[in-house]
Amino acid sequence: MVVDNIADVQIGEENCVWDECYPSYLEVEEDYKANNLFVLEENNEIIAAISIVPKNEMDNFNEWKYTNNVSEIARVIVRKDKRGQNLSIIMLDNISEILINRGKNVIHLAVAIKNKAAVKNYIKYGFEIIAKKFMYNNEYYLCEKNIGDKNE
Predict the structure, then answer these.
(1) 118 φ/ψ angles, rounded to the nearest 5 degrees
(2) Edge-to-edge, what's the strand order for the sheet holding 128-135?
(3) Each residue's pLDDT tens digit in the chain (152 positions)?
(4) Are 147 and 99 in contact (CB under 8 A)?
(5) What is the pTM assigned to this prediction?
């Protein structure tokens, strides 16, 4: 099943802040059951994944420019041997369309500062770094991107 090995794609890799506790099986399973987990597969193996996160503690951060019609994405992964093939861009394009269809206008995310490739990719995709925040024992950039027409 998809939820059995989603985290195995990334854990232990350089610049990865994931460990045996995060993401937990429960978080990934909840994403899956709520239709908030999206994967790319090749030969029945996960090569990329992304999750839409329901309301959580990040929603209350004061740093955000936009707070209405917002959704957070997290747990974005691309298998190491598949990087450099624009799979994260494909995933972000698809998730943006899904979120627009769900009535969302802005995407929030937190990216580990030490994950320079991911930071570069999000900036290239149009995310704006809003703030730097220490949380979960690491430093993160809080990023957001306007994907819709209206924001307040």
Answers:
(1) -65, -40
(2) 37-42, 45-53, 70-78, 106-112, 138-146, 128-135
(3) 444 455 555 545 555 544 555 556 677 777 788 889 898 989 988 888 888 987 777 888 999 999 999 999 988 888 888 988 999 999 999 999 999 999 999 999 999 998 898 999 999 999 999 999 998 788 999 999 999 865 44
(4) yes
(5) 0.83
